[in-house]
């Protein structure tokens, strides 16, 4: 008989379940997580009491959300609200707002809580509540995306709003001087700026017989070449040659010649540069030199194909926005049927010095191409040459 009663007792035992609560408070930047094990017949009010005992958050300041819906009935159980095992609830900590006329009294008494009844005046919508509802309700989020395509672009491609630096920097030492080196496997040679060469004390080693002009996206003066100097990468001391060049945004650029000579491997999965078994970690975004980003922001922009813009110095290509693409597509319709106007080039030709035009023609371009490039770059020969080589 006792065994039978015990069996009946176990049959009516309500199983426990585990839920996780994400706690978001207006005063905290990071959200906290709390995991609780509760029975299925636990009411919302009992859950708030458990949260209060666990986190010392007053029950009156707790606002629970499930799938974006506010749980405002403290008498309903988890089973009635269709909250199962392993689900996550959002807990927003928010003190009840006072009427606008009592803002001065609230400022003088910050620790005093004045709860407002449900029958009071309508409150201003709380931004944090709206954010939690948006994150917890996929249908509402989809509706917002449909009404605001710009918001959808931000959600799908956040890098379009805030460009992320896709560059690799490591800490090195050249002749005992610490330098943040830019690793570029697309560069043919290892390049150092004249200022960095002076700081490292190797400017006296520059062989000026290798001086010249580098042409690519723009032109830059090559002062010479340091045939061998000591560079420390990680725990290794390696010989390295440097081409000292003006007009670069970085102090030291480790090119393919140095990487291939010492059998370096750029491991993007580990965020490390591996040289002969020695691993060197990439620098974080906060440690990357800001001078290159500032100069790229201030550098002149040249018009490229398809509405893109090209950095006159760096050659960085930026795509147009959706509005620019639409306006340019509409502008291209009359531009196709418009006849060419050679007299315009004749009017522009005398405005540029003949030596500037001849300098671009000497690079292998026609006279019309040189004049058009000078017109697009405001008469700057260096930027015009970069535009022609880019094209």
From TrEMBL:
Annotated region (Disordered), positions in chain: 97-126, 295-332
What is the predominant subcellular site recorded for this chain?
A: cytoplasm
Name one cellular component (GO) term.
cytoplasm
Residue ranges of domain Ubiquitin-like in the record:
19-98
Q: Which UniProt keywords apply?
A: Aspartyl protease, Cytoplasm, Hydrolase, Protease
What domain of life?
Eukaryota
Q: Which GO terms describe its biological process?
A: proteolysis
- Alphabetized InterPro entries for the sequence: DDI1_N, Peptidase_aspartic_DDI1-type, Peptidase_aspartic_dom_sf, UBA, UBA-like_sf, Ubiquitin-like_dom, Ubiquitin-like_domsf
Composition bias of kind Low complexity appears in 109-125
Residue intervals of the UBA domain: 351-391
The answer on whether this UniProt entry bears the keyword Hydrolase reads yes
Q: Which Pfam families match?
A: Asp_protease, UBA, ubiquitin
**PROSITE patterns given in the database record:** UBA, UBIQUITIN_2
SUPFAM superfamilies referenced in this protein's UniProt entry, alphabetically = Acid proteases, UBA-like, Ubiquitin-like
Q: Does the keyword Cytoplasm apply?
A: yes
The molecular function GO annotations come to: aspartic-type endopeptidase activity
Q: Where in or outside the cell is it found?
A: Cytoplasm
- Record-stated family: Belongs to the DDI1 family.
Q: What is the stated purpose of this protein?
A: Probable aspartic protease. May be involved in the regulation of exocytosis. Acts as a linker between the 19S proteasome and polyubiquitinated proteins via UBA domain interactions with ubiquitin for their subsequent degradation. Required for S-phase checkpoint control.
What's the subunit arrangement here?
A: Binds ubiquitin and polyubiquitinated proteins.
Q: What is this protein called?
A: DNA damage-inducible protein 1
Q: Which organism is it from?
A: Monilinia fructigena
Give the organism's phylogenetic lineage.
Answer: Eukaryota, Fungi, Dikarya, Ascomycota, Pezizomycotina
